[in-house]
Write a structure and sequence with these properties.
Largest sheet: 6 strands, antiparallel
CATH architecture of the largest domain: 3-Layer(aba) Sandwich
CATH topology of the largest domain: SMI1/KNR4-like
Number of helices: 8
Structural class: alpha+beta
Shape: globular
CATH class of the largest domain: Alpha Beta
Helix content: 25-40%
Low-confidence stretches: 229-234
Mean pLDDT: 94
Oligomer: single chain
């Protein structure tokens, strides 16, 4: 199963492609004076039109807003603008080039770029998985402190779910079960888990994960919004 199908499974996208028109992609290339790498072009044609995948938290930039920041073609913007992800101009001729990340610094009032992931395919998968755990799917929840992050539950996830190795970073790991759920574990400098983010479209899976980490430990769950909606209806 390739990464496009994995994303489609995660988001229950039954009808592929849900991409952008090729004419719009070509127009963006002409405006920028480049041709997009083959992997990026394939992604845009297949999944580029899905708002849940591409804009529900971090954002794949619309074609008309894609541009260069110095020597880097910017593809993705963190939801608060803290960082950008893109491809070095010198690497654009590759089919699946490495990607860089630029962090905004007040000192220079600009983004400072450094290597991030080994290829563009991994970046697009990271976007989909991050957004899945941060609100892009029907059922999401998070824990954001070490005290509430049960160490035995973390160990269970590490032993019973598959890590998405290509997305591994120093302070975070993504896990999945056949791309029917996404679990993002975050770690502090001491290597202790201090955050859990989950996303799925399957309510039974969601409830199982909530129970695994103990219902009372979750800072937020999708059920909180349902409770708020019910209260609003009662007030009316």
């Amino acid at each position: 199963m390739n990464y496009l199908q994995n994303i489609a499974t995660l988001y229950h996208l039954d009808h592929l492609p849900c991409g952008l028109p090729e004419a719009e992609i070509t127009a963006a290339e002409q405006r920028l004076g480049i041709r997009f790498p083959a992997i990026l072009r394939e992604y845009l044609l297949t999944l580029g039109g899905s708002e849940a995948v591409n804009q529900s938290f971090n954002r794949l930039l619309p074609l008309e807003k894609m541009d260069f920041d110095g020597d880097y073609l910017v593809l993705i913007e963190e939801y608060q603008g803290v960082f950008l992800c893109g491809i070095a101009k010198a690497d654009l001729a590759q089919d699946n080039p490495p990607v860089h990340i630029g962090f905004y610094t007040d000192k220079t009032d600009s983004y400072e770029w450094q290597p991030h992931l080994p290829d563009t395919r991994a970046l697009l998968l990271e976007l989909a998985c991050t957004n899945a755990a941060m609100g892009g799917l029907r059922y999401c929840a998070n824990i954001m402190d070490e005290e509430s992050t049960d160490a035995q539950a973390v160990q269970f996830i590490q032993q019973n779910r598959t890590e998405i190795i290509e997305l591994r970073q120093k302070n975070q790991r993504f896990y999945t079960d056949g791309f029917h759920e996404i679990i993002l574990l975050c770690f502090n400098e001491n290597g202790n888990a201090n955050g859990v983010f989950i996303g799925t479209t399957d309510q039974d899976r969601f409830d199982t994960l909530l129970e695994l980490f103990s219902w009372d430990n979750w800072l937020y769950t999708s059920y909180d919004e349902e409770d708020d909606e019910d209260e609003e209806c009662d007030e009316e």
